[in-house]
Give the backbone structure.
Amino acid sequence: MALTTNEQLLIEQRVTNEAPNVAAAYLLWFFLGILSAHRFYLGKPGTAILQILTFFILIGFVWLLVDAFLIPGMIRKKQDDIRSRLESEMLARGSLSMRF
């Protein structure tokens, strides 16, 4: 069973509302990057803590610069996860209504 156009539009609206904001991620990266605030914001607490710990051996600074290029991909991944979850929920809800 495929989703209707309205259901797809609803999913895209929810993805927009629930996904992290690119501008906010970059602001956190720029101003609070040394605290890995952008990684916490993007739902990556494990790597955020690891990044903070690596600052003590200077690898963290390189990692911080690399993150400037990784942020858009992390946001796309988060959006895809939200989209996938919502599509599954809608399809499950649709198959339940078909039974009754």
Notes: The mean pLDDT is 92. The chain has one domain: 19-91.
